[in-house]
Automatic annotation (TrEMBL):
Species in which this protein is naturally found: Chryseobacterium indologenes
PANTHER family hit by this protein: OSMC_OHR FAMILY PROTEIN (PTHR42830:SF2), OSMOTICALLY INDUCIBLE FAMILY PROTEIN (PTHR42830)
Entry protein name: OsmC family peroxiredoxin
A Pfam cross-reference name: OsmC
Family annotation (InterPro entries): KH_dom-like_a/b (IPR015946), OsmC/Ohr_fam (IPR003718), OsmC/Ohrsf (IPR036102), OsmC_Ohr_Peroxiredoxin (IPR052707)
Length: 155
């Protein structure tokens, strides 16, 4: 089996001078960095005292599922001779918070809107979402089904 290794650096930037001396005494802000890439500013969800102007882990999780699916989908379309000219996905997810404050995602649905060049390829273009879902590394790493509701247009 071939393996791939990844490394990210998370740096907490929310110390307001007294560290974590109290639950309300620190910000949840942090930076996410990977060598030679743009830094992403993160925080927790505003429901958990986070900064709504920064990405939170839940949004990044959805983005990972969505972008992995898209990359596999584009790959399979390319192999099948389907010319994709536009792709947008508005992914949605539901996270259940438990009584002890922990939580987990129970559902993610991808809503890819794809534009292709040939009407005769619409059905095949729709079918390839199933294959992309089967191959997506991130979807294969979660313990729930990642659903997808695609739309395909010709332009």
């Amino acid at each position: 089996m071939k393996t791939h290794h990844y490394k990210t650096t998370i740096q907490w930037t929310g110390n307001k001078g007294t560290g974590t001396s109290g639950y309300r005494d620190y910000e949840r802000s942090h930076s996410i960095s990977v060598e030679n890439k743009v830094i992403i500013e993160g925080s927790s969800d505003p429901s958990f005292r986070g900064d709504k102007t920064k990405y939170n882990p839940e949004e990044m999780f959805l983005s990972s599922l969505s972008s992995c699916h898209m990359l596999w989908y584009l790959h399979f379309c390319s192999e099948a001779g389907i010319i994709v000219t536009d792709y947008t996905d508005e992914a949605t997810g539901i996270m259940a918070e438990t009584t002890n404050g922990s939580g987990h995602f129970t559902e993610v649905t991808l809503h890819p809107a794809v534009t292709i060049t040939e009407e005769s390829m619409i059905e095949k273009a729709k079918q390839l979402h199933h294959k992309a879902n089967e191959y997506c590394f991130i979807a294969n790493s979660v313990n729930f089904e990642v659903k997808h509701i695609p739309t395909v247009w010709v332009k």
